[in-house]
Here is the input.
Amino acid sequence: MHRRDIISQLFDHQGYTSYLELGLRNYNSVFNHIKCDVKHSVDLNMESAHYTMSTDDFFQKLKSGMLDLDKDFKWDAIFVDANHLADFVKNDTLNSLNHLSDNGMVFLHDTLPPNYGAQLENKQCQTAWKVVPYFLKYHPEIHICTTTESGGGLGIIIKNKSKERPLLSSSFNIFSEYYLMDADRNTSQNFIEFDKVYEWIQNPYYNFKEQNLSYYTNPKDIQHVWI
Here is the structure.
């Protein structure tokens, strides 16, 4: 299932009316498939984007009232698809949450790399997957899961209104090793099959297993990768 279908289906199902895309690249990938009147795009390298600038500059100018938007403007859905290195994805996500409506949703692209090579820093998914366990550990104010799509997976974030949720142990995979994530994506990425996503949105849940380091570091589970 392509990310445009997942995002557009959830967008319509939730009755959303506004959309922001960070990292446009191609209008026909997702942007043109979101049906609403209030849509904005940000891309440093596309003059046809609504805002041709970096995402950091966009949020800073928005905060400072330097754009043609209210500085407190909020969107119902925000797709984070700009720089895929973990630090950038984290910053884009935190900035997006400050401008997300109470019942809104943030989508993160490429948070389930299909293999080791895809998550190298100069490849398709880069290190975007690393923000998911980070948010699972340190940001109880949000709920987050991941689901498959035809590319590199999709992260889904909603605001936590109950103020309580399980936290991933801070000692789990502290060095963000790919093989540990790949050994148990249910725990590391809170993986949810797409047919369960609607249920998850209504009642978020977590797939954490016993977070015992020895469980994930059994030598027979480690696959050597030659590059």
User: Anything to note?
Assistant: The longest helix spans residues 3-14. The beta strands are 18-22, 38-42, 75-80, 100-109, 142-147, 154-159. Residues 3-221 form a domain with the Rossmann fold fold (CATH 3.40.50.150).
